[in-house]
Backbone:
């Protein structure tokens, strides 16, 4: 079976959950002799696919930064991909799995079946956060309707797809993510300079529905009450002027720290944190949950969207709309050693349900049913 993947998400993301998902999926398939990967990527800065045997891409002007670089990369990749689809040598692929939501390929693949993975419904649930010119939602809906099959990364995402698009239940298959860390990651000897001894960890983007500022405001009294308590933010970009203003106004500027992340840095941060705090109002899945479980990091998180489904009994839940609820949960996880130990043990158990091997196996089964 020959599966064609496209360039799109690898033109847009250097790091990110969607490109991580497709990298892990293709990496599993590359080791499977029953599946041949066709991946005509020309240019990319994505870090997951560096030195992978299934990609022959080139890094586009790696030492030169300019504002429209990603747009140029995407444009050149699209030209290359269009040509690849048209060539005779690629016409015998069995099915197509686009990596994002641009419908550019619909007239090119003709009658070939394709699968679309929907990672979340953020654009539909929070349309006020996006420009009226943003086409992600309309493109996603079009591809959902035209696709042969839809993969949803959680039952909650499937429920939202049905709610917003009216897609039949039997067209959508739920296939969960896996955890990208392994035993080698756990053996990392990396030591971070100036890492606080006692800190709460926040991973990823912090704006809008991620609920970061609300989380910080909820625990200001705890930060002041514990002289050695800090908050470490991993990835998501350096602190904004708005965030720094909040830190200064509340006299906690010296308790907030930002780290640019690689897998080694992130592993170190999980290992040494009191807990991962995940106060987001909505997530399609929530990969940091599994990452924290892997490193024995307790998780305090929202009681909404996909979180209870993914974390199960291994999460300490709070209402992300109530500051008192966030504060109480964080205080418990700071003070209660037994609670942290119990959460750690439950996290290991919960993690057994997820792996990229299982993701690939379920996806391959879905392919065989339609390609």
Residues:
């Amino acid at each position: 079976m020959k599966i064609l993947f496209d360039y799109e998400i690898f033109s847009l993301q250097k790091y990110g959950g969607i490109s991580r998902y497709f990298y892990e999926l293709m990496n599993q398939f590359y080791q499977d002799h029953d599946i041949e990967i066709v991946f005509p990527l020309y240019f990319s800065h994505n870090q997951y696919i560096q030195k992978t045997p299934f990609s022959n891409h080139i890094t586009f002007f790696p030492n030169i930064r300019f504002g429209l670089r990603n747009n140029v990369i995407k444009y050149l990749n699209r030209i290359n991909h269009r040509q690849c689809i048209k060539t005779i040598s690629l016409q015998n692929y069995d099915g197509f799995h686009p990596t994002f939501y641009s419908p550019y390929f619909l007239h090119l693949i003709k009658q070939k079946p394709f699968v679309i993975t929907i990672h979340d419904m953020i654009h539909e649930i929070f349309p006020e956060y996006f420009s009226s010119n943003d086409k992600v939602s309309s493109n996603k809906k079009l591809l959902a309707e035209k696709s042969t099959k839809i993969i949803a990364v959680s039952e909650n995402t499937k429920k939202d797809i049905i709610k917003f698009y009216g897609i039949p239940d039997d067209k959508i298959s739920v296939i969960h993510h896996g955890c990208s860390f392994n035993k080698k990651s756990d053996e990392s000897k990396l030591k971070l300079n100036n890492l606080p001894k006692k800190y709460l960890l926040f991973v990823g983007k912090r704006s809008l529905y991620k609920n970061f500022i609300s989380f910080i405001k909820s625990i200001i009294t705890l930060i002041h009450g514990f002289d050695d308590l800090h908050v470490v933010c991993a990835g998501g970009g350096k602190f904004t002027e708005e965030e720094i203003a909040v830190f200064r106004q509340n006299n906690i500027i010296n308790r907030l720290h930002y780290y640019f992340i690689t897998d080694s840095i992130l592993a170190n941060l999980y290992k040494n944190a009191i807990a991962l705090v995940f106060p987001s109002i909505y997530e399609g899945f929530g990969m940091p949950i599994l990452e924290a479980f892997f490193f024995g990091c307790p998780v305090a998180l929202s009681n909404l969207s996909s979180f209870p489904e993914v974390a199960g009994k291994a999460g300490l839940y709070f209402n992300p709309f109530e500051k008192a609820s966030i504060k109480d949960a964080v205080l418990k996880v700071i003070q209660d050693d037994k609670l942290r130990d119990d959460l750690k043990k439950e996290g290991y158990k919960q993690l057994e349900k997820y792996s990229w091997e299982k993701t690939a196996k379920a996806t391959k089964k879905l392919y065989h049913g339609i390609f």
Remarks:
- The domain at 2-178+355-370 is CATH 3.40.50.2000 (Rossmann fold).
